[in-house]
UniProtKB/TrEMBL annotation:
This is Serine hydrolase. Keywords: Hydrolase, Signal. Residues 1-26 form the signal peptide. It comes from the Bacteria.
Amino acid sequence: MTQQKSKFFTASVKSHFILAACVALAACSPASTVNESSQQISTSSAALQFAAPEEVGMDSARLDRVTQTMQGYVDDGLLAGVVTMVARDNKIVHFESVGFRDIEAEATMTNDALFRIYSMTKPITGVAMMILYEEGKFRLSDPVEKYIPEFANLQVAAGEDADGNLITEPQNHKMTIRELMSHSGGLSYGLFSQSKVDDMYNEVNVLDPDSNLQDMIDKLAALPLRQQPGSMWHYSVSVDVQGYLVEKLSGQGFGEFLEERIFEPLGMTDTDFYVPEEKASRFAQVYGYAPNGDLVAQEAFGGTNDYLVDQEFESGGGGLVSSTMDYMRFAQMVLNGGILDGERILAPLTVDIMHRNQLPKSVAGIGLGARGTTFGLDFAIIEDPVEAESYSKGEFYWGGAAGTWFWIDPVENLVFVGMIQQFGGAVPVPDVRGSSRRMVYQAIMVPK
């Protein structure tokens, strides 16, 4: 990659990570009667199935506008290809693909295409953590150093001296697992802010794909925290640390635990940290934009992650590849209160904890332009739909750096999953998240 392209792509990555973090898309309305509760459990245990939109109170013609809108982005040369999926009341009512999986190869996008989901890995890691929470392996109020002794006595950046050297101070309290799971523990990413600590993250290459999770912990243990634990929401490597915690608490490899406890029970047959050879023909090409706006095929992060080989570094914060159907099955399980097709992953009240605001009382929201939005355990939460320009209070969601997006709406009993492979830069990625939200909700004719 030339220096010019490298600078362009670095900007693209940072821009789109922020876009992923800013996506404002909403809460749990508990059953009010015993009969409603029994009906919910019955629905949750039923198999995820296909149905006509009208069966769940949606209008087919209006729902088709999702496809039309996405096709328009492809026709305008803004996106290569898109897959979108909607489920309501445990029934799939929309599953469409448009455009190309690979433009140069003239390979049409298909519903079973595989995508780098980047930060949409985070909610899956959070569910893995909560499986262990249910087993009594930790409390949310526990200090992280109880399970990661390397984190004992971490210092905190407190400014610079006259010579520009970093000044540190002790933590005012020990980082807790709740803070770790809500991006308020003091860690950083090296991507979204300019500070001495961020520079240190980049110098040691904290998330080196050629290393392992223990290497990451050792690097972080030698660095100060960017800010005091509990002082602010700051997007960070904390979910990669959670992946390491899953290993320590379970005694299994992280990927092995995900396969055994989440992917296999849910029938997520296409979700892994790499794409095996027999599935490579389904793997979507990722694109950026040239300065003139043309789509340019290019791998992220300088192409350091070769998804076609098994990964040494199993990133809980952004390493998974998945399909639209697989992610729908995961998200529907979450909406169902921890169960899908009779396979229970979590208890309903455990899932409820994940989409309650877990930020310290002094932290109003997540910032980054996501108004009316707070944070639970590895999910963002719409607390004020008016401020967030959304629809349902309590909707929860996240997105991925290459444009993938999803939301879960317990009020309307709805899940949306969207998949693209697109990094923005000087040319922004079109607002697939906002437009898909409008198109989906204007198709609901029978609100809950």
